[in-house]
Amino acid sequence: MTGLFIGSTGGSAGKSLLSVALGVLLQKRGFSVGFMKPVGQYPRQEAERLGDADALIIQEALGQHVQADDLTPAMLPSSLHALSILADDSAFSRIKEAYARISEGKNVTLVCGTGRFPSAGTCFNADGLRLTRELGLKTILIERFRGAVEYDALLALRQHLGDSLLGVVLNDVPEKNHRDIDNLLRPYLESCRVPVLGVIPPEPGLTAMRISELARMLSGVIVAGNAKTANFVEGYIIGTMQVDNFMTFLRTRKKSDAVIVGGDRADLQIAALHSGCCCLVLTGNISPCELVRALAEEKGAPLISVRPDTFTVARSMEGIIRNKKMRDLKQLRLAIDLVTGSLDLGRIVDTVKN
């Protein structure tokens, strides 16, 4: 049996999506696949047992039926009041025992990491390096391309992992960067014995939602720009600063980010609309002035008016976007299709066979 660890040197790199897509692809090749996420981050109750929300979704997609606390034996504390759980010295033993049960009779078991590899899980003495070494796992790293690649971190991990590092998958790489990736970065990494297993292009449909759907999930009302509510939102930023600083910040963000701003901050609202943002979420149940309404119609950027304050809405947005990634079956199918066309599955299959 082969164990594959899916990790990344940064958060929100695409570990869950690669795990579910790779699991389905291996199943299609005839392999029996197990799955677990040793250290969880997003607790969810399932049949009176606590597990990780994302891990439970992946398990369902792969047709696996494992109790939630076996699927995720250790859960990071969700608040300072829960720090006492870190005194639990049995977490690593539970992880090893759960891995043995889940992997029994399987050709391959996928182990999905949490947060940053290898540091995540250190609080339970279950950091990534210990997990991979003591469970005998091969490692695949997935890195989200944010204008650059953390090649220093990749090379350091290559030294720590040795030949157990299968390679790296580069995620969210714009087409304009593919030539440099193929001609410069890929040869360099492979000369350093870090094989590039795939280059995945951006796909807004994986993390995006329509503006009309966002308004519904925030219990908001669209008060302007109704013609563009079918456009997509991928992320968000918060407008709580001076206009000059805010404009500088906006230039570094994607046009598909929603801007959350107080309903009484017409100056920031106008600045955001001129920047080309996809929509505004106006907090505090304050109606926008006519100038802002007119500008929103002109720019094609819907205005969503919501009752809660900016901080509360930002927290809601974080949960909505995270949950949207893993709870939409259409997005799971899209992820599988995207990975199928981008991944060197043959190299991974050869590892599983051997």
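(ticket continues) Second input and output from the same batch:
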Amino acid sequence: MRALLLGLLCVAGTASAEEQVMITEETPYVQSGMVVVATMLEMAGVRASDFVIDLGSGDGRIVIEAAKRHGARGLGVDYDPRLVKLATDNAVKAGVGDHVSFIEQDIFKTDFSAASVVTMYLLPEYNLALRPRVLALKPGTRIVSHDWGFGDWRADAETTVPVPDKPVELKKSSTIRLWIVPARVEGQWRSRLAPGARDARFELQQKFQDVSGTAVIGGRSLPIERVLLRGEFLSFRVQDGKRTLRFNGYVSAGRITGQLGIDDHSYRWRALRSN
């Protein structure tokens, strides 16, 4: 995997001869340790049905391991033709040349909208530049980053693993972060609630996966509580007098389709976007 660490020089003796040859003045190639690779794939929950795209793929180890260990398909993107060739050769040696491919391309010109998992080891400013495109991906797409985040977009999960032979930074550990692209739910929604088929309106505010808002039921404005937005899945509660209304459903094409729980009963529930 390539880390675009601008201005960073390799510490003498920390890179192999082959790695040192590949270092350019602008963007040195820094490998991610295999413990980091394994952790990234584990956090993303990679499986055979996934298409993994690694932005800055270096020697190809992320997508190669995704194919070897999990049967996933993969694409690696790197601007250095020498690394693209090395990664391609490594895939053939690993027996997964039919599952993965590598292209020479600027990551900012790369279309990664087909990915179900995107991996990266880029500086924060690169992540921030990519963030609008990442947030525009299909809800539920998993994004995994080595060491760096996306500014104020809170990670859904993170862990730190020891990396004794890490060639950069004084600390010999790496932090792996996972984000799940959230559906866009901000705005007004209308619904009818069984039993009684009462009309209801929901006004939702959203910042990334954090959602708040109010429900208007029977003319009363009630706060929405315990909201969870994870990819396309949305759940929340509304306290309507002595009754707790539990809403959950999947967001798609301007509607939420799921279940409404009241006491021990469950009803079909649907909400339509009204703005």
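Agent notes: The chain has two domains: 17-180, 187-273. The domain at 187-273 is CATH 2.40.128.120 (Lipocalin). Closing as not reproducible unless the customer responds.
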